[in-house]
Write a structure and sequence with these properties.
The chain is an alpha+beta fold. The protein is 48% helix and 17% strand. A six-stranded antiparallel beta sheet has the order 1-2-3-4-6-5. α2 packs across α4. It is elongated, with a radius of gyration of 20 Å.
């Protein structure tokens, strides 16, 4: 967690009169459909400053977003890519009990001590698999990270479940081993 955010959360009871968990409970009871409605409610009804109100609503929304819904929305109109995603997920989960799957709005991070794989439906016909493989040379298939920037060191483009093969699994396993 970002240091400034942690400080804000730690200061919340003193500055707003309630802890983050207490605010989340209040917002759950109100069930706002729009972010701005929740912020406006906290500012007008509870006299919370804009910064705290925005943070409370944002963190409440993150918690309430179902991980299955995040993944489902990533693959809307791309159902033919789901078998690739499922095969990747099945393999990374077989690597060890310390693997954590963290869906986000546009991708899924696979984390051990830190992220070692990133699964992203890049186009309607392709998944980009980001890998953290420091000191591993690129090849025709194992490309430079491209759009992933510093989040990953390499990228593999996948268009068919058959591409989740022994070579790819070896790279994923190597990234897992290096993520301690």
């Amino acid at each position: 967690m970002d240091k400034a955010l942690k400080t804000m959360i730690d200061n919340m009871p003193e500055k707003t009169g309630k802890s983050l968990e207490e605010w989340k409970t209040i917002l759950r009871a109100m069930s706002f459909s729009k972010h701005s409605e929740g912020v406006r409610y906290l500012k007008t009804e509870h006299h919370v400053t804009h910064g705290f109100a925005n943070t409370i609503v944002s963190l409440s929304k993150e918690e309430n977003t179902d991980t299955e819904d995040l993944v489902k929305s990533q693959y809307e109109g791309k159902a033919h890519l789901i078998p690739i995603y499922d095969a990747l997920l099945e393999f990374v989960l077989s690597l060890g009990p310390d693997v954590k799957v963290t869906p986000k709005k546009g991708s899924v991070s696979i984390i051990r001590k830190w992220q070692f794989v990133l699964i992203k439906p890049a186009t309607k016909t392709r998944i980009d698999l980001g890998l953290k493989l420091k000191d591993t040379p690129t090849s025709e298939r194992l490309e430079n990270s491209g759009p992933f920037g510093t989040m990953c060191t390499h990228r593999v483009k996948l268009s068919d479940v058959s591409e989740v093969d022994a070579q790819l699994k070896a790279w994923i396993a190597e990234a897992y081993e290096k993520s301690v």
